[in-house]
Amino acid sequence: MMKTQPTTNQRQQRIIDLRSDVVALPTDAMWQAMREATLGWASVGEDISVSRLEALAANRTGKEAALYVPTGTMANLVALMTHTRGGDQIILEASSHILWSEEWSFASICGVVPRSIRGTQGVLDPEQVREAILEKRFSHRPHTSLICLENTHNMAGGTVLSPTQIQATAAIAVEYGAALHLDGARIFNASVALGKPVHELTADVDTVTMSLNKGLSAPGGALLCGSGTFVEQSRLNLKRLGGASMHKAGLYAAAGLVALQTMIPLLSNDHRRAHLLARGLSEFDGIRVDLDTVQSNIVMASIDEAVLSAEALLRRMEEHGVKATLCSSNVIRFVTHRDVTDEAICQVIHVVRDTVSKLKDDLISRRRKGTLL
Question: What is the pLDDT of residue 370?
């Protein structure tokens, strides 16, 4: 008898995917909203779902207007295009997403020059920002038109910027006539972690981007929020990038509305599970997790290369149905989301425990053979 091939959903159930929260599937309510969406021509303002989504995003962030954009990366790029001119200097944290994960689009498309500052857990020191703005060599001092922040900060391990920390950088920006942009791909995670509404975290920035699929499980889309004038100029730049012609955009926007209206309170579960995972991983020899940085839904595990190989650990984990991301030669990133249950977290810890034990045994065996040789 011919065996029935497993369905896509059945295969997904066998895999615990902690590579990113973007892999979380839409909810049933989102699928229903997409099926029932009344579609219009979005690029001329005739799609009800898109218009409602933009209005809701502007309201949540306390800004005058919002622009629906295909991706968070494009939203950041449009923001930089609108804020800057070629030859300008922009200041950002040294491990920020805009600098490391968006292929330097700010340089190739905007023609601006990055000035990176190493932060503490992703947080910029305002005085270092001031020094970067004022630094002068011979007769040249770059014109700084923009400062970029990130909340939560991806590569710092999902760390959260507080309103006070944002205000401190905003004061420097105002003093020197620079704009302040917030990459808020996971701004709702920051809001839940701090127990503060989003508008308190965006009050002192000029513009903010937010993702609808990171953590919120929508199928896609992002929003760029700012003043009415800024958003109108950004619409032109979005056209220049080819991102304004999202026909049938209301399908995604309808799901995005559900995401903003229903998913935010559930993010606390992702945070709790990240803490559970971090505590479990930190117990294993050869793996270090800075528990102080586990403030939202991201866990960064540093691998002691004298004890383990991060690549080997990741490969063995995947063989046992657990996926994560190698961020550098010795750092593995785990990101929790709504499709990862408490039981799944326990399974991940169990898999890592067994894998670490076997890898250490293999290493000891190879070293003994090397000694005999």
Answer: 65
